[in-house]
Structures are given as structure tokens and as C-alpha cells.
Design brief:
Elements (H helix, E strand, L loop, with lengths): L5 E6 L10 H9 L2 E4 L16 E4 L11 H13 L3 E6 L9 H10 L3 E5 L4 H7 L14 E5 L13 H6 L3 E5 L5 H10 L7 E6 L7 E6 L3 H8 L5 E5 L21 E4 L3 H13 L3 E4 L3 E5 L4 H8 L6 E4 L2 H13 L11 E4 L2 H9 L13 H11 L6 E7 L5 H8 L3 E12 L5 H8 L5 E4 L2 H10 L2 H6 L3 E4 L2 H9 L6 E2 L5 H12 L2
Parallel strand pairs: 1-4, 1-5, 2-3, 2-4, 6-7, 11-12, 11-18, 14-15, 14-16, 16-17, 18-19, 19-20
Antiparallel strand pairs: 7-10, 8-9, 8-10, 13-17
Helix pairs in contact: 2-3, 10-11, 12-13, 15-17
Length: about 500
């Protein structure tokens, strides 16, 4: 019989994935089994080991939902199998999270556990809306109240008389379904009907909404605005908020849905950048990186690496593919001891820096033609040997410019982009329903692969704006008849988002 496992009851935070604690994230990475609530952001499960067992246990009405007793049984069973289990719960596990019932079940069978705190929804909703729950000017105390008591419970533990007279801020969790009762009881027990109320839905997400109304009008307002769970109800002077403190919803890209069309790793990085600017990232991989480092061209170039005067990388992908091979060969940055290195763009230079290399040259304009032109102006390339390590699909501009400068160029394909063939139905539906604001493209291959799966006329009819990272990508879009709303003047992902911000802030 296996030894008993261990259970970590982890608070997943209020919604946005990167608001989980460091300890919570580390435990997800090491768990054998993760038992996740519906309110825990699914993006957190991407941290899990590839072989980890994922059990989703939504507690909702209808098919596919789980009772608390069923969840307790799963938790105990997985622990008794000897597994390290993470019980991932939205917000903080101990704030209306029914954690007591779960740890009692674990105690009964002798399974040890640890509770890992998380940011509870009320705190996050406050700090992401400018609603200060305990500003000393008008509220020196705050009360958290459940808006939904236990099913089948006789009577209530909620003292409406006390809450109606409470001289601070009231925050009701899980109360949208019982909002009419909450408003009625507070007013009936003496709370002023004009008391400010705020409903905060989808706190910390780009889809966050705030609806305000007096206590006697909040039910009708909620119904009119179609507010749905998850949402918090904040009652009291604090609910009025202060616009100058609402930093999140004032971001230029707040509420925008922006599609990233790179490879999976590039999409993940770009998605973080999009979320940091208040927008909703939509990841749509159009290709996967396939190394070509087993080919004769690369192996021959590697054998003669010391004979080249310059080595040029044109993308972070190329840098990573190259050093992945070096790692398997037991080599490192010292292979470039006799070479000078050029990088197309700051992102490529940053990728080299991660491996301990400072690029000798980065052009001021991040295109292949400009790299060649500026490098010729910097150094005498006549009869110099240059090795290009880049995508098989790259254009010939850089090679032509370097050859015109007298260089001997060896253009070696380091990797290629393999088209992705997943079902585009979900994204297509979002475009057709007007839920997508921007499509972004960072390479010609991304353009070609995207429009093989989603027709140009669907994008045009959906009134979606298209943003390109640079002129080469824009040329590919023009070739397909796609209207380009903007081409980033700085040809980086930062520059691309900055250009979108400028458009949206006008």
C-alpha cells in the first residue's frame, strides 16, 4: 500500500493568473495531481508538469458539476494513492472557500496538509477599480459577507440589523443571484436607500466591469446591464470610488481583445505583454518552430565557424535553436570567440545576452535591408566571410545587400516555420461577433498561415483592425489584399503594442 501523500490547499488568487503567490505557483509546478475549481484561472494549469493529473471540479448547477462531498472524496482518494496534491481554489482558500470541510476529510484519514493563502477577490476588486475599502476618510472597517449560504441551511447567520447599521464597507461574495434579497433586507433594516453600491464583475481581467447605483436602484441596474457572476457587491461610501485611483481601467488598451499569431512560445510571451497593458490576449498559433540543425548546411558551417568574420542572427528563435544544439554538444558561447556578432533588433540582442554574448552590432532600424546597409557603413565587408543563421523562409534582401558590399555570404537555414492546423472555429466566431479588436502579425509566415485558416473577407467583415510589426510583414498582408491599419515604426513587439496604444488613445 503506498504511503500517504500530501495536500496543499492553494489560493489561486482573484482571477488574473500572475496574481498567484510565488509559493502557490511553485507548488503547481511540482504537483502530481491538481484538483482545480472553476474560478481558478486555467492559465495556471500551464505551469503543471506534463505528466501531472488535472481534475477540474466546477461547483455549478447542471451537468458536469461536483458537490462538495464528491470533491472531498476525490481529494482523499488522490492523497491516499501517495500523490502530492494541489487543491487549487479561487481567491483565498479560507474566505468562503469551504476549506474546513476539505481539511476535516483529510484529517479523518490522517493525510497531512498545508494551506497556502491567496489574494481574495474583494481586495483585488478594490485595488483594480479605485474603490478603497478602508479609506480612513469614510470607512475604518470592512465586512466580508457571503451572499449565498449553505444549501438546505435552516435560518441564517447573517444579522441584517447589524449590517444595516455597520459604519463601514460591506462586501458581498457570490451575491448576484440574491441581490434583490440583499438590497431589500438592508433597506428594511434601516440602511439609507441612497447608499452607494458598486458591482464589480470579472475583477482583474480586461473584461472587468463596474456598475454603480444607489441601493434602491441597484437590482434594476444590474439586470439592465446584464451583470453575471463572478461579481462582488460593494455597499457603502467607498463604492463611489475615485476616478483618479482607477489605474487599471484607464490603461489605453483596457478592454481591447488582441490576437497574437506567433508560435506557441512567442504567443505566450506576447500575451503577457498584452495583459500588462490591460488588454485581453487571444493566442492563435500559426506555426511551430522546427530546427534544421541536423542538415548538412548547418553542420558544415558549424565545423568552419572560426573562419567567419561576422555571424548574424535575425531572430530570438534562431538564437535559441542554435544554443539548444550547443547544449547537446557540450559547448557554450565560447564557440564565438573568434567572431563578431550582429543581431537584427533588440529582442535578438537580448536573446544573445541571455547566453552571455553582447552583440557587436544592432541596426537602428530592424529590417534585413537596413542591417546590411548599416553594417556595410560600419565595417569594410569586402571579401569578408559572413554567416547568416536564420529562418529558411527569410527574404533575400539581407543577402543581396551584403553581397553588393563585397561580402562572401553563407546563408544557412537554422530553422523553419511549420504551419499549424488547429481548428480556427472559435477565433472565427469571435471575429464574426465583433469580439476581436486587433489582429497582430510579426512575420510573413504568420500572415500566410493565418489566412489559410481564416479567410480575408471574414476579417474585413468583422471590422477588425490589423497591425503589422514591420514593412516586410506589411508587404505580405498587402499581397493578400488585407487592409493594414498600422505598421509599427519600431519593428519589435513592444513597438507594435506602442503603436496600437497610440491609435486607441486618440
Amino acid at each position: 500500500m503506498p504511503s500517504k501523500g500530501f495536500v496543499y490547499l492553494v489560493g489561486a488568487g482573484p482571477g488574473r493568473a500572475d496574481l498567484i503567490t510565488l509559493r502557490g505557483a511553485e507548488l503547481i509546478k511540482t504537483a502530481d495531481c491538481i484538483i482545480a475549481d472553476k474560478l481558478a484561472n486555467p492559465a495556471l494549469l500551464e505551469l503543471a508538469r506534463a505528466d501531472a493529473e488535472i481534475v477540474n471540479v466546477p461547483k455549478r448547477i447542471g451537468a458536469g458539476s461536483f458537490t462538495q462531498d464528491q470533491i472531498n472524496e476525490i481529494l482523499v482518494r488522490k492523497a491516499l494513492e501517495g500523490k502530492t496534491v494541489v487543491r487549487l481554489k479561487g481567491g483565498d482558500p479560507c474566505v468562503f472557500g469551504r476549506v474546513t470541510e476539505e481539511v476535516v476529510a483529510l484529517n479523518e484519514v490522517g493525510v497531512k496538509f498545508e494551506i497556502v493563502p491567496g489574494i481574495t477577490a474583494a481586495i483585488a476588486a478594490s485595488e483594480y477599480t479605485g474603490i478603497m475599502l478602508t479609506d480612513r476618510r469614510y470607512s475604518s472597517q470592512v465586512a466580508f459577507i457571503t451572499g449565498r449560504e449553505a444549501d438546505g441551511k435552516q435560518g441564517t447567520n447573517i444579522d441584517w440589523d447589524v449590517l444595516a447599521r455597520f459604519p463601514g464597507t460591506l462586501v458581498f461574495y457570490m451575491g448576484i443571484g440574491t441581490l434583490p434579497l440583499i438590497a431589500k433586507e438592508l433597506i428594511a433594516n434601516g440602511r439609507d436607500a441612497s447608499t452607494p453600491v458598486a458591482l464589480v464583475a470579472n475583477a482583474t481581467f480586461p473584461t472587468q466591469r463596474v456598475v454603480r447605483a444607489p441601493l434602491n436602484e441597484i437590482v434594476e441596474t444590474c439586470q439592465r446591464e446584464k451583470i453575471e457572476p463572478p461579481a462582488l457587491i460593494i455597499v457603502g461610501a467607498a463604492a463611489e470610488g475615485e476616478s483618479e485611483l482607477d489605474w487599471f481601467m484607464k490603461q489605453p488598451l483596457f478592454g481591447q481583445s488582441i490576437v497574437s499569431t506567433r508560435d506557441a512560445a512567442g504567443n505566450a510571451e506576447f500575451a503577457r505583454m498584452i495583459a500588462n497593458r490591460g488588454a485581453r490576449p487571444v493566442e492563435f498559433p500559426t506555426f511551430a518552430i522546427k530546427p534544421l540543425t541536423e542538415g548538412n548546411a548547418f553542420l558544415h558551417a558549424l565545423a568552419e565557424l572560426t573562419t567567419y568574420d561576422w555571424v548574424i542572427f535575425t531572430s530570438p528563435n534562431g538564437v535559441d535553436v542554435f544554443f539548444d544544439v550547443m547544449a547537446t554538444l557540450g559547448k557554450d558561447a565560447r564557440v564565438f570567440a573568434s567572431n563578431r556578432l550582429a543581431a537584427l533588433g533588440t529582442k535578438t540582442a537580448d536573446a544573445l545576452a541571455r547566453y552571455g554574448i553582447r552583440a557587436d552590432f544592432v541596426p537602428t532600424v530592424f529590417t534585413g535591408r537596413e542591417l546590411g546597409t548599416q553594417l556595410i557603413a560600419l565595417a569594410n565587408l569586402h571579401e569578408k566571410k559572413i554567416l547568416l543563421l536564420r529562418s529558411e523562409l527569410a527574404t533575400s534582401d539581407l543577402v543581396e545587400v551584403l553581397q553588393q558590399g563585397g561580402a562572401q555570404v553563407n546563408d544557412v537555414p537554422l530553422y523553419t516555420a511549420v504551419p499549424q492546423t488547429g481548428d480556427p472555429a472559435a477565433l472565427r466566431e469571435q471575429i464574426e461577433q465583433g469580439q476581436i479588436h486587433w489582429l497582430t502579425f510579426a512575420s510573413p509566415s504568420a500572415v500566410r498561415n493565418f489566412f489559410k485558416r481564416i479567410p480575408v473577407d471574414v476579417v474585413s467583415a468583422g471590422n477588425v483592425k490589423v497591425a503589422s510589426i514591420g514593412p516586410v510583414t506589411t508587404a505580405q498582408l498587402d499581397k493578400l489584399g488585407v487592409h493594414v491599419r498600422l505598421t509599427a515604426p519600431e519593428h519589435t513587439t513592444d513597438g507594435l503594442l506602442g503603436a496600437i496604444e497610440q491609435v486607441e488613445s486618440r
